[in-house]
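Model it.
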Amino acid sequence: MAVKAEQLPSLLARSLAPVYLLAGSEPLLVQECRDQVIQAAQEQGFMERTVHEVGKGFDWNLLEEASVAPSLFSSRRILDIRLPTGKPGTEGSKALIDMAQAGDSDVLLLVSSGDWGAAMRKLKWTSMLAKIGILVEIWPVKPQQLPGWIRNRMKLAGLEPEPEAVSLLAELVRISTSRMRSARSARRMPSCGIRFATDRSSHSIGLRSNVP
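Modeled.
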């Protein structure tokens, strides 16, 4: 089942799924969803958690062995698997599917993907995890959604913001985001031999690089 991040708390209050896939490129929101799942799982007796950061050369066989090995500290545990790129590879995809299908009620599979797009829903491993458990899709907040998003976040923190304060914060976020995007664009340009040039015939401004 695929849900939005704001739907997760109410679902966790009802019951705990065996698998959670948290997908999105917003680290703060992904971490908040992860914390919510962990807290709900701990209340259900999942007192042990192992964190597995998947990188180059990650040993999926060891992870699968760990998922079935008896726990030393608790009968119920969380496997917290983090995929920064959202690409576990062929071996990793199979391992995730196998663990999700194992159906061990004492193991909760918590997977987070740092990279996500609509097309990734159709991948075999993501489809299987969403079918067995819950897929939480976390999309970037759009500019027009910022005021409402900020207002809701402040209310969750116990605050009652004035409309002017919400508008000011939204504008500051927009400015900050715009500057970060400009900085990223600048870093992608050739780092030497760039000069601005004006095309008088069309009155357009472009970039010219001396880098061959």
